[in-house]
Structure formats: structure tokens, C-alpha cells
């Protein structure tokens, strides 16, 4: 789509004062998908030269905001970590064409803050944290679950950008389980649930997304019972936080989230799934 209100596109490497009507441009798959009448200037991040993926000395993994879905998918297929399958599972949750995969970025998916954003699900499920950078160069870090505050609502200050997401080494060593549900065969996620089991201390976590307006991550020191898990989800997610749109009613989303959560609990605690 032509953005006929945009008067200028500037390189983000040239530090210029932020002004009303500015917007960061990553892959552009969302920006150019619908009218953006409030935008007057695009600030292009594509030439920043950030490594798409980088290991840290402590074994944690940094995913640059400009990392494309294609780059992440290729990396995940050779990732020497127990949680590696989760990367491809979440990439496939896009159900998008190769053209979108080659342009869409991890940072763009998080900054859109849409409930069905699979990169939100992935990074929240692996206890990721966002590195945010302001116009003055100052940085701050906060969990992905605190970055996405609601449907399309993010904790981003004016002119601030998402630089990267860090996934801790401990999360990459976890056993994982993935479940996704949609009303249609090739439809948007109506519920996406991720479970992890930490081999170090036996703790269990469950992340509910797509069904809710924002991601919710629940942590248990020991694997919960079915009743404990169900109660924890209902105690954590308020009735108005189950998402409501054409892709699923709140009651259906809650039902699917609870169903998928129980499947994950059984899988990760090695219980026999009843038929």
C-alpha cells in the first residue's frame, strides 16, 4: 500500500531529533499493509548492521529487533538447545508467505503488540526480556510480559525503539511443549499456549497468548495438578482479558486455552494423555 502521507524516509544511522509523525521502519510488512495517516516520516532501521542473533558470554541469546523470521527460522533449525523446536513452531504460527518471512522482523511483531503475534508468544514463553533504547541513548530492560500491555498496547515511550530481545540460557535448556488453535485451517491463532519444564529445579511454566489481550506467564515451583493449573489461569486472567474479535469469542478462547494448557501439563509431566 502506498503511504501517501509520508514525506521523507531517513536512515536511522543519521541521528536526528525525533518529531511528531515519525515512525520506525523495520521490515514494513505491517506499516505497508494498511493506511497510516498519522505518519509523516519513516526512520529506516534496516542498515543499522545489528547481528540478527548473538550469543552472550553467559549462554543467553540476543535476538535483534531487525532479525527476520527467515533468519530466526534458519537459526532455530540448527540451534544446539533443548528448546530449539519451539523456535520453528512459533515461526510456523505466522502462516505467512515466504515474502512476508523474508521481510517481517521479530521486533516488528513485538511492537505491533497483537495478541496473535507468535514472536510475542515465543519470547514470553522463554522468559525473554526487551532492551529498549531512547533518543538520548539511554536503555532500559523489561520482561516481554511487561512490554506488551494489551491488544496493540506496548510500553514504548515517544521515540524509543526495541533494540533486541534476550532469551536466558536457562530457558533454552528447558523441555518445551507447544499448542495452537484456530477457528480455521489457515486462520489466525485463537489460542497459543507454551509450556516449559526446567531440568535444573523441576519448575514448570505456562504461557498463554493469542487467546488473551496480552501474554500471561505462570510459574510453578513444582508441576501443578490439573485443578491447580486451571485455578491459576482463571485467577490470573481476568474475564475482560480474554480477547474478543472475529477470530474467536472470549468463552471459546478461554475453553481452548484451558484445554491446551492441560495437554501441555500432561506432556511435560509425562502423564498418560487420556483418550
From TrEMBL:
InterPro entries named among the record's database cross-references: Diverse_Substr_Oxidored, FAD-bd_PCMH, FAD-bd_PCMH-like_sf, FAD-bd_PCMH_sub2, Mopterin_DH_FAD-bd
Q: Where is the FAD-binding PCMH-type domain?
A: 1-172
Q: What name has this protein been given in UniProt?
A: FAD binding domain-containing protein
Which organism does this record belong to? Streptomyces goshikiensis
Amino acid at each position: 500500500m502506498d503511504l501517501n502521507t509520508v514525506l521523507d524516509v531517513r536512515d536511522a544511522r543519521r541521528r536526528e531529533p525525533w518529531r511528531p509523525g515519525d515512525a520506525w521502519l523495520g521490515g514494513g510488512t505491517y506499516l505497508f499493509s494498511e493506511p497510516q495517516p498519522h505518519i509523516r516520516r519513516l526512520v529506516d532501521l534496516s542498515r543499522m548492521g545489528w547481528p540478527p542473533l548473538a550469543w552472550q558470554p553467559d549462554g543467553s541469546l540476543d535476538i535483534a529487533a531487525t532479525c527476520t523470521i527467515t533468519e530466526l527460522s534458519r537459526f532455530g533449525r540448527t540451534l544446539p538447545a533443548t528448546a530449539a523446536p519451539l523456535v520453528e513452531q512459533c515461526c510456523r504460527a505466522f502462516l505467512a508467505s515466504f515474502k512476508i518471512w523474508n521481510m517481517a522482523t521479530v521486533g516488528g511483531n513485538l511492537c505491533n503488540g497483537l495478541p496473535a503475534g507468535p514472536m510475542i508468544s515465543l519470547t514470553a514463553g522463554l522468559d525473554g526480556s526487551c532492551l529498549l533504547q531512547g533518543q538520548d541513548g539511554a536503555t532500559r530492560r523489561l520482561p516481554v510480559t511487561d512490554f506488551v500491555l494489551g491488544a496493540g498496547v506496548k510500553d514504548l515511550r515517544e521515540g524509543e525503539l526495541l533494540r533486541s530481545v534476550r532469551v536466558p540460557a536457562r530457558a533454552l535448556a528447558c523441555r518445551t511443549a507447544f499448542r495452537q488453535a484456530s477457528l480455521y485451517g489457515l486462520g489466525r491463532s485463537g489460542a497459543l499456549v507454551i509450556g516449559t519444564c526446567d531440568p535444573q529445579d523441576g519448575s514448570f511454566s505456562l504461557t498463554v497468548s493469542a487467546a488473551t489481550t496480552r501474554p500471561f506467564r505462570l510459574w510453578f515451583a513444582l508441576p501443578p495438578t490439573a485443578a491447580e493449573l486451571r485455578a491459576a489461569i482463571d485467577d490470573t486472567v481476568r474475564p475482560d482479558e480474554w480477547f474478543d474479535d472475529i477470530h474467536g469469542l472470549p468463552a471459546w478462547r478461554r475453553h481452548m486455552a484451558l484445554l491446551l494448557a492441560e495437554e501441555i501439563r500432561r506432556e511435560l509431566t509425562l502423564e498418560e494423555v487420556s483418550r
